[in-house]
């Protein structure tokens, strides 16, 4: 009878858990390559494929580069400010869709999709069957298909997502958050060759992902004493790339960006303004000629809304970069071409064709989801811009349409059943309360270990402590010592045993290697 009762509780908990998942992980509209032709709308008469503007790209990702770190008067990145003020650079505050952790954000800025929390929990791709994006459409894949050679140095998350697309690569581990220096030096040491005349012959796209600034945030917060020097270091690297690539090749595009921001204590993963406000800057000789209307004087006065220059969605990078270099926009992209960059094109007809390409790609997704926002084709630039924004809104809404009734019902049922299970567990073990009490202490302490990403990364410290404590408890339990003089003398031996166990565990700790 007791077994059936407990089995029924577990079954009901599973149902509550699945109900919560159904509400919290909405179904997204996704296309396969085979479906594109089925839903494709033919281009309007007079459409001509836009000509590429750039033939060489550098993407520099500075992990957790919040918008104020690059644009505000608190920033130490003076050379970047000079690029913005002289017209070489165009700055944006880019909204990073939650969850604001690296893997989902890299997925968003390469595929144009809006990842949800299942991507952070399961560390998986769009079809939920793979740990990489190798089979998913992205600008990385489109570059590879079009014969671009891609070199990547930095965060090894890129290797997990795109294992077969890089011509030359070396990853750095993001696990050791106390490392501010070596993790970035292992990226920068490649620049001497990669930026040389010989090195630039071996790549068309260079990706650099620096982790040091993010690690400083985790350890000391955004106001850490290490933050100004790290910003200066990143600024110097921006200057090197500008001098060696941008100035020497007028057809090159240099992108500096953060994948997400950080909150007031240096963590990220949530949806606060500080966590979702990432910096984004495009740099090119061609911008200086066009003087787009986003041109403002940097640095800008710091504000707690993190509102610097124009605000865009981070996923807008995907169709913008794709069209600027003349490759197909990824089929599941939800982003919009950034209007400020239309000035790169000389004629109204070229600008219209750019927007038509973006609008038709979004219409394919709308047609599959059976959403009709307005008729197509559009003819004028203002109409196309309006259509793209409406389509983007509808598709993004579908991707994040949480069912709050199912979420609350699932959570309520799960917690109610958990309380019942605890009560039954306590009644069953009432004669062995000490064991049950220790189980509860362990359960609560271990659960608290998951409230922050830094705790997860340092989980091994908790296991060292609990392993030592558990062995000590077993020794004490079997010795059955009580507060008598003879048995108190045995406590010294127990302490020696505990000290020995602790020493062994300390000696077996894994320390990061200096490379």
Question: Tags for this entry?
Answer:
515 residues, alpha/beta, Alkaline Phosphatase, subunit A, 3 domains, 8-stranded mixed β-sheet, 22 helices, 50% helix, globular, disordered C terminus, endoplasmic reticulum, PIG-G_N, transmembrane helix
Termini separation (Å)? Answer: 60 Å
Give the overall silhouette: globular
Structural class: alpha/beta
CATH fold group of the largest domain = Alkaline Phosphatase, subunit A
Largest sheet report: 8 strands, mixed
CATH secondary-structure class of the largest domain: Alpha Beta
SSE topology:
Layout lengths: L1 H23 L8 H7 L16 E7 L4 H5 L6 H9 L2 E7 L6 H10 L5 H6 L16 H7 L4 E6 L1 H5 L6 E5 L9 H7 L2 H4 L10 E6 L1 H9 L6 H20 L5 E6 L15 H4 E7 L1 H6 L19 E4 L3 H8 L23 H21 L12 H19 L4 H25 L4 H16 L4 H5 L1 H21 L5 H23 L8
Helix pairs in contact: 1-18, 16-17, 21-22
Summarize the structure.
The chain contains 22 helices and eight strands. The protein has helices at 2-24, 33-39, 67-71, 78-86, 102-111, 117-122, 139-145, 157-161, 182-188, 191-194, 212-220, 227-246, 273-276, 285-290, 317-324, 348-368, 381-399, 404-428, 433-448, 453-457, 459-479, 485-507; strands spanning 56-62, 89-95, 150-155, 168-172, 205-210, 252-257, 277-283, 310-313. An eight-stranded mixed β-sheet has the order 4-3-5-1-6-7-2-8, sandwiched between helices.
